[in-house]
Amino acid sequence: MTESASVAGTTGHAGDRDGTALPADPGRWLHDLVADLLPPMRSITGEGVRTTLRTVARALGPDVPLTVHEVPSGTPVLDWTVPREWNVGSARLIGPDGKTVVDAADNPLHLLGYSTPVRARMTLDELRPHLFSMPDRPDWVPYRTSYYNENWGFCLTDRHLGALPAGEYEVEIDTTLTDGSLTYGEIVLPGETSDEFLITTHTCHPAMANDNCSGIATATLLARALAAGPRRHTFRLLFIPGTIGSITWLARNRDTVGRIRHGLVLTGLGDRSDPTYKRSRRGDAAVDRAAAVALAETERPHRIVEFSPYGYDERQFCSPGFDLPVGRFGRGQHGEYPQYHTSADDLEFVTPESLADSFAILRRTIEICERDRTWRNTAPYGEPQLGRRGLYRAIGATMNRQAIEMGLLWVLNLADGTRSLLDIAERAGLPFDTVAEAADALAGVDLLAETGAGPGGATGG
Amino acid sequence: MTESASVAGTTGHAGDRDGTALPADPGRWLHDLVADLLPPMRSITGEGVRTTLRTVARALGPDVPLTVHEVPSGTPVLDWTVPREWNVGSARLIGPDGKTVVDAADNPLHLLGYSTPVRARMTLDELRPHLFSMPDRPDWVPYRTSYYNENWGFCLTDRHLGALPAGEYEVEIDTTLTDGSLTYGEIVLPGETSDEFLITTHTCHPAMANDNCSGIATATLLARALAAGPRRHTFRLLFIPGTIGSITWLARNRDTVGRIRHGLVLTGLGDRSDPTYKRSRRGDAAVDRAAAVALAETERPHRIVEFSPYGYDERQFCSPGFDLPVGRFGRGQHGEYPQYHTSADDLEFVTPESLADSFAILRRTIEICERDRTWRNTAPYGEPQLGRRGLYRAIGATMNRQAIEMGLLWVLNLADGTRSLLDIAERAGLPFDTVAEAADALAGVDLLAETGAGPGGATGG
Amino acid sequence: MTESASVAGTTGHAGDRDGTALPADPGRWLHDLVADLLPPMRSITGEGVRTTLRTVARALGPDVPLTVHEVPSGTPVLDWTVPREWNVGSARLIGPDGKTVVDAADNPLHLLGYSTPVRARMTLDELRPHLFSMPDRPDWVPYRTSYYNENWGFCLTDRHLGALPAGEYEVEIDTTLTDGSLTYGEIVLPGETSDEFLITTHTCHPAMANDNCSGIATATLLARALAAGPRRHTFRLLFIPGTIGSITWLARNRDTVGRIRHGLVLTGLGDRSDPTYKRSRRGDAAVDRAAAVALAETERPHRIVEFSPYGYDERQFCSPGFDLPVGRFGRGQHGEYPQYHTSADDLEFVTPESLADSFAILRRTIEICERDRTWRNTAPYGEPQLGRRGLYRAIGATMNRQAIEMGLLWVLNLADGTRSLLDIAERAGLPFDTVAEAADALAGVDLLAETGAGPGGATGG
């Protein structure tokens, strides 16, 4: 049995975040929300996820309903099973002198994720296999988990570990690992068509600002922005635990994922690295090309990387059975910055400027997918007479017509029902908006008709 | 109702141009014909076109019949309508002192094309919207038209315009714009097959040597050359007004354009720029590849540009409904040389050398299309024994056989009914003629059979 | 009528070559065998071929049966006919002074291959058209044949030719050209499947170490190595005269050549040039890609050249009717080294090191083809849970998992029944063995199933 509950926040986020209007300073708004999301102990299940979704609901404001799903432990999901729910009372390591040496209340990262409950007394040497540190980064606490093998442990700085005196230690891990449920949030914003644009972000990482409070915050603001405007696609935003969350969602929505025309996994959007798009497994999906256009339009350094089956939830969406047109957007990639999965991924590590830049590129990518269509020229034999339709300059002359009219001519020439506007812009070497505006003008005088299928990606399945 | 009249000139062009034999100096012959074609007032309809076609017929000589078609004003043609016929009696602008300031009798470019008849008196300021000049080229007269919006005007040098005194001017434009017909010329030279090679050039531009007296002259000489020799393809040469002419021809021949296997639009063949080929919309039609080979063989600088829906009549032939394998050949492209569409496109601007060079490249392009075929090896299992067929050297030795025999081996290996000789030459890295000669030798001993369809391009539709 | 005889050598080759175990020093073993193969007069038919095959049989040892086929003269084979059998008693040219000037007993190359019997007396000038030398290499004897045009002649050094005195010469060519048979050897080593790997080498060249005693020797040692181990493919090794031999074999096996999934023609494996692979006509056959991987893995200079219809027996296997996935492996290519087809292609020209290197690259190419398969992920929806199958590390952490697990993830992501392991390794940028080992591990827990067809190349026909 699965519970779902609609948890529309009663008010929007504090400060300038009331209503559905966009904040005046999106970067600051996002950074503030990252700060709100940071504190709670959080894992793939448990109260931390629910607390997180309540923060998201408040930030969404009253007009954007977030549905919270609870999927019981033990539910078979694809090749996996929903795990037991993990909750943390307290977790402390007490030294030979009776003083607390490590306390998860100070930093959720101190506790190995999914640690089983333990009350034990042991020597430092017995304890060592349960203590995790980073010798090469002696002042940072690493992030470690053991979801599917029962274990327990503490993470601490290597400097701290090295200073621990010999003697007897008291382990007091007061956790529960019991049948409960996996919790995720979902927002559906209906559009003109049932074709879907999926935006998904993982909610399971504790106490790290970039990975992935930045993703949760950005998805929240995208939902507000999308809710405020007209939508051709139906937008679906997921706030789910990594891996098991996307697997659970895919298992529960297996029959309808075919509606997904475009998708984006959001991770690590606030660090100072260049914006980075990772292509879908298909490599040439409309969202892959739209993201490339959006990044090129910034005229700043950026990266587009090929799909690989390593990373975040794109691994599941792009598994060969689903093969969905889902790419990933972020900045620094997992593992390539030293702060990755450590206590150094903190509020200083993410900046309002980077968050705002990521948000803008994502909005532009979405806008391009919204505008992209596959049209058919209704007068394909010869050029139609644009002049009598008011689309052509009166006095036939030399060259400056080109800037104005090339968009019209290219769209007429290539809109044969097989090429999207992205295809046409690429072939013509024209800005996407020029081509899209030309198409709107031509459609306005019935020189274009939409082809059977919806957006360009429709045949990509 | 449409009139057609066969207007075979009774004698060939002057000088060395009698009979169908090629002139000894094609560049000089072409330049002389450009000079003959230059003077008359000419537009998309009217007596100027008929005068032009009479000049063409004379230059063709008695053995190459030119059919002149007249299509009545008001005839619906694709998305357009054949316009009223425009004729010019005289067109003068008379200054405040009663003297003629601008007179179309001096240069047809002085009159805005398709100017409506006007008799009016007005101040210079009232007149200004009807006066066109080129501020950045103060000594040149621009070429301007207003076919589909009723208007009138004069074109003059900017220096002249700047010197016009204030005062009252007399406009005397004695034109007629009445129901009549659109006139075009057509030559059909039947070949062994009904597959067609289309050559087309526009006849509507007045008083400019390169654009497009050079095209008209070159098409004329190509017709003479093609008429004199054997032809595999049926050749069709069109002398038509730009845009409306090709639209009219396409509308009248809509059911048979599928026979067109190759096509070339000829424009601007006499200037000093490098020869330039613009690919068909298909981009890899046989004519596109043949032109590339012909240009490469010159071992001189040249350009091959991708299709774009801007330019000359290739816009119509390559509209998506027709999508014919028609490229464009010329030298300087429209708009890229300053003399384009001005009075500076004169007899000095075109040279006999450039005209002769363009003519030679066109003949070679046509020759390659004529020779290109798609053969099938009749003994495809193992190599056939060339020795007993007299195609192989007697003493098996080392290396110099390669130059002789590689053509035979490549054709045998690749002639599987799907690859044309152009394909094979490209894959083999051999000259086209080497491959074509090898194919002839192999066909001569029945080691090759022609595939069902005609030329290589037959399946390209 | 065709005779076949199984001629299993009673003992292996001398020295360390007994049994089927590989020799300790393959390069030395191969060089010794080249020396054994060098002496006899040899051509496309005759006793020389039989002597050669007896040497091969001895070197194969008792456990690798070589079948010797005799195909009667006059048998029609594809477009050819099996020629008369040529045998040589003696061949001498006697000078004006009665002394022997040239004697084929000194070097088989002295006699033009397939020389007809001659007893004649003639002047030096009458003789000249029958004397072949290399003016640019005055100390080398060229190799010349005249298989299909009756002729006779002597080959000698240019220095020798220049020193011949005028006068009457005695020609004593004691050859027979009579109905007999064409002889070739064949080894079949059955594998788990009937899909075949063809290895072929020509046996017709006399007295030249690289071309092609090196090929015969290498094929012999490959047969020993393959016979000693497990085999997925059925291996077929051919020792055949060039051109007419492969044509004869193809004619006799026309109905079953479709079983050939991979093939290699072996020529010139012992010279000091870089190893060179020539692609099959298909260009992307599995063997083409496997050879490229094997060569890249050497991390030493090598060449991969595109198919051309000139060369050795790949000409026949890759004729368009057969179009088999057969490439060619060797070092220096025919005609590109001066020693090619001369007496300078001797035992000094080939080295044990080059022979051993060629042998190692061939074994690796074969091994890759043996391991390459096209698998299908049996759990393609989402990632399967590798952890519970013991394929995943227990503690989820940072980066060093990549080296271990990327192979598993890439195979799962791409094994969709259309991509071979070679495809996956190439796309993933991983070593072939990493991908193959990952596939073995996944198949071991039933996460992969083999697709219908056998090896990757199965659909390439």
Architecture overview:
Chains A, B, C: Residues 1-24 are annotated as: Disordered. Chains A, B, C: Pfam families: DUF2172, DUF4910, HTH_47. 3 copies of one chain form a homotrimer. Chain A has 461 residues and is an alpha/beta fold. Chain A has 3 domains: 3-82 and 181-371, 3-Layer(aba) Sandwich (Aminopeptidase), CATH 3.40.630; 85-178, Glucose Oxidase, domain 1 (3-Layer(bba) Sandwich), CATH 3.50.30; 374-460, Winged helix-like DNA-binding domain superfamily/Winged helix DNA-binding domain (Arc Repressor Mutant, subunit A). In chain A, 30% of the residues lie in helices and 22% in strands. Chain A has 12 helices and 20 strands. In chain A, the strands form 5 sheets. Chain A has a 9-stranded mixed sheet, with helices on both faces. A 4-stranded antiparallel sheet of chain A has the order 6-5-10-7. In chain A, helix 7 links the parallel strand 15 and strand 16 (303-305). In chain A, helix 2 runs parallel beside helix 5 (209-228). The longest helix of chain A is centred in the middle third of the chain and has 20 residues, at 209-228. The two termini of chain A are 32 Å apart. The model of chain A is unreliable at 8-12, 14-19, 394-400 and 453-461 (pLDDT under 50). The B-C interface holds B 377, 379-385, 387-388, 394-399, 402, 405-406, 409-410, 412-416, 428 and C 78-80, 142, 144-149, 151, 243, 246-247, 250-251, 254, 281, 308-310, 315-316, 318-322, 335, 340-341.
